[in-house]
Amino acid sequence: LFLPSFQDLFGVSMVVPLMNLHIKSLGASHTVAGIIGSLYGIMQLFSSTFVGCWSDIVGRRYSLLACILLSALGYFLLGTSTTVFLFAISRVPVGVFKHTLSISKALLSDLVSERDRPLVMGRFNAASSVGFILGPVVGGYLTELEDGFYLTSFICASIFLLNAGLVWMLPWSEENTGNKEHEQGNRGTDGFSAKANCDLHLKSATNGAMASNSLFQTAWIQIAAVLKRIKGIAGSDLWDIFLVRLLMSVAILLYYSNFTLALEERFGVKPLFAGYLISYSNALGVLAGCLLGPITRLYQHNTYRLLLHSSTLTCSLILLYTSALSISMVILSSTFLAFSTTIGRTCIIDLELTIGGNEASGTLLGVGQSVTSVGRIVAPLLSGIAQEFSPCGPPSLGVGLALGAILIMNANKQKYCSHGNVKLKNQ
């Protein structure tokens, strides 16, 4: 799964930086380009929870292969887009089904123990980040060729087809995965875990229906099971975890929203230097993912404490950047921020799965992805308003949101710690 995740982001990051240039070359205005970009985010917002829950019902292999192949179709259509309308159509299958990384994370969560989960997730994120670093370089080179964008899109589609082949050849054992889910369900410590554990019977019924009933009946059973799980999430007490995720996501997005412009206005730094600084931070993020194992052992696998401390560090570093008097202080804050954000991102996923129950990992990761999508929609609006007051307005607002997330974690400390104690006792 590490190789497909690397190739996934490598292929996507080749194409995404070139898309605005391509759609404008087709004659689209800035407004139309923005609307199409927003529609993609909205599709991701509503589809991530549904697709993640669907992977819990039908199994990881079937859902992951379907998402990879339909994403490949989207990028293939992008490579044939000679009009704005075709460009918009090509974004539909990708917007709805590009949840390959979320399903891969859910599969990893099924296969590894709770103790090893932060380490494995950190390495998975590191592998993905390497692809995200290398992709834009290759895409920038290819776009210099004749019809470079179309060539890049076809290469991206081919990478997804290669990933489908790799996933197909994996040594799958759905029965063993289901047994592991059932064992983890017996250790559930939340009301939602109990509801999701009951849905294992629905999964078996669905698999039987796929073999004997019509396609329509199978689809209806799957949709009913998905809606039941989503209802279980809505009625659970996980709201505070998802709120923490939303606040921290928006805080970090606000930090990066006007990063290049703010550096130029505050310190006279050229955009090229800001680009190098962002690439430097991404590279350090990869290193942070590899160091998660020793760090979690240092914290005795207490995910709550590690998340609280990393979030506090993130808040402090954004504040340092906001009040920086020299570019050296910006470099210092960017260096440590790469570590704190990478660790925090992995910890919030681990906490969601620990409290929500690993047997519904696809649903939980899907909801988490929807929460992050909300952040991507809200952050540009807040950033635009904050920049009216000061170049430091967006990160200053981010400090306030991060502080709110820290206060929520402290207010719910007893709940997190009680789950952490259960986790340690079972190990």
From TrEMBL:
The gene is Mfsd9. InterPro entries: MFS (IPR011701), MFS_dom (IPR020846), MFS_trans_sf (IPR036259), Sugar_transporter_CS (IPR005829), Tet-R_TetA/multi-R_MdtG-like (IPR001958). It is a multi-pass membrane protein. The chain crosses the membrane at residues 62-89, 124-143, 149-170, 238-257, 277-296, 317-339. The keyword Aminoacyl-tRNA synthetase does not apply. Residues 1-416 form the Major facilitator superfamily (MFS) profile domain. Belongs to the major facilitator superfamily. One of its GO terms (cellular component) is membrane. CDD domains: MFS_MFSD9. PROSITE patterns: MFS (PS50850), SUGAR_TRANSPORT_1 (PS00216). Keywords: Membrane, Transmembrane, Transmembrane helix, Transport. The keyword Cytoplasm does not apply. Gene3D superfamilies: MFS general substrate transporter like domains. It is found in: Membrane. This is MFSD9 protein. GO terms for molecular function: transmembrane transporter activity.
